[in-house]
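Supplementary Methods. Inverse-folding protocol.

Structures were first reduced to a discrete structure-token string of length 158. This string, shown here, constituted the complete conditioning input.
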């Protein structure tokens, strides 16, 4: 399978600006704006620290509420690589997420496997069908990340 062309630097600049705008709208409206993905599934803000840069980062991500856990899908990466936020998150023992309504939760990440992964994947695809489509365009198994509740209030690396 040929490798798809890398997005241009203009694409990434636009992507970063839209993510920042989404974050501002999400916070100012307590999730009423920027709290869903194109009017569909709910979005949370994931706080993580760049492994190379050491800089604090925030990614708006679609999530599945599996109380008291949250579930996110590491879909958008390369054909055979996971996205940078996934690697950053998995390098941290705990971090913080912001949910619509202004709620903040401290969480510990882990990757779901086996039957748990299959069950959560089906539920996630039911709320956001493009996950299944994306999975047909990659050679990697797309991780299903479970965010378990963790104690404390400030994210690691801040």
């Amino acid at each position: 399978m040929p490798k798809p062309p890398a997005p241009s630097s203009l694409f990434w600049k636009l992507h970063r600006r839209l993510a920042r705008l989404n974050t501002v709208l999400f916070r100012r409206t307590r999730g009423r704006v920027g709290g869903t993905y194109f009017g569909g599934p709910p979005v949370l803000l994931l706080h993580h620290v760049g492994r190379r840069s050491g800089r604090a980062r925030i990614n708006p991500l679609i999530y599945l509420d599996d109380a008291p856990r949250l579930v996110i899908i590491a879909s958008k990466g390369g054909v055979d690589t996971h996205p940078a936020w996934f690697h950053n998150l998995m390098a941290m023992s705990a971090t913080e997420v912001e949910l619509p309504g202004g709620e903040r939760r401290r969480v510990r990440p882990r990757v779901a496997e086996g039957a748990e992964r299959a069950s959560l994947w089906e539920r996630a695809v039911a709320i956001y069908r493009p996950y299944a489509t994306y999975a047909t365009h990659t050679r990697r198994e797309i991780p299903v990340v479970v965010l378990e509740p963790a104690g404390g209030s400030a994210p690691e690396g801040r």
